[in-house]
Amino acid sequence: MSAAPSDGFLTRGALSERHARHLRSLRLRQIWVIATQIAIMAVFLGLWQLAASRGWIDPFITSEPSAVARTMAELIQDGTLGYHTAITVAETLIGFLVGTVLGIIIAGSLWWSDFLSDVTDPYIVVLNATPKMALGPVFIVWLGATMTAVVALAVSISLFVTILSVYSAFRQSDRDKLVVVASFGASKWQSFIKVVFPSAVPTIVATLKVNIGLSLIGAIVGEFLAANAGLGYLIIYGQNIFNMSLVMTSLVILTVIAGLMYYAVALLERYFVPWRRD
């Protein structure tokens, strides 16, 4: 009889040790992933610099990492980089928030009213398929060559993606749960708050990941068309004066911004969708 607890203890100990080895292997794998990513970037930058210095590519056209670093240091020193980056980030975040919130509200309205959904469905599909870049000149004429036009373009790109994705998630909510809450006398609003919206949270978070990139694209395209500030403006300005180091520096900063925004949304996912943490 005394052997049973000992066997149980040994079993739990073996499982604990196996779990510890598994965690160590996961940490080691993550270290290798990060190290490989850094190595790939280092090799890419090294080959780029080597090709430019050896004359394999024309640094006037492609620039080079050392020139990009010098340009970035100059822009940071005179405050230009911070100013233009802040403008682009502000336009992107405003477009992202407005497009996402408005899209969720419209999607909820479509779920609420089948009549409204049936009436607006073809219009939403057509507007979503319309090239949003073509709306840039329209917004500029309507709103002027201002930050408002840039934000409007960013909103137009993310809005319809949000509506279609979130509305589809609302409609796919568990009907058995809706029947259960209705049998307890829940109103339509209570059904939406307690069942429909929570079930759509993973889709909403996934849509946020897409929208942050789309909003950044909209902001940059808007700055291409009509702006006197922002990273998109710096790219066009660098192109016009044949300063590719300025263009490449702006592209590097845009890449960093996109990555930071994406990982910020990923942190939200870890909080609101905890079962996806692994």
Descriptive overview:
α4 runs antiparallel to α9 (188-225), α7 packs antiparallel against α9 (188-225) and α10 (231-240) packs antiparallel against α11. The longest helix has 51 residues, at 3-53. Mean pLDDT is 85; it is low at 1-9. This protein has 278 residues and is mainly α. The protein has helices at residues 3-53, 59-62, 65-77, 80-112, 114-129, 136-143, 147-171, 175-183, 188-225, 231-240, 244-272.
Quick synopsis:
By secondary structure, this protein is mainly α. It has helices at residues 3-53, 59-62, 65-77, 80-112, 114-129, 136-143, 147-171, 175-183, 188-225, 231-240, 244-272.
Average pLDDT taken over every residue: 85
CATH architecture of the largest domain: Orthogonal Bundle
Beta fraction of the residues?
under 5%
Query: Quick one: how many beta strands?
Result: 0
Keywords:
278 residues, mainly alpha, 85% helix, flat, MetI-like fold
Helix and strand topology:
Layout: H1 3-53, H2 59-62, H3 65-77, H4 80-112, H5 114-129, H6 136-143, H7 147-171, H8 175-183, H9 188-225, H10 231-240, H11 244-272
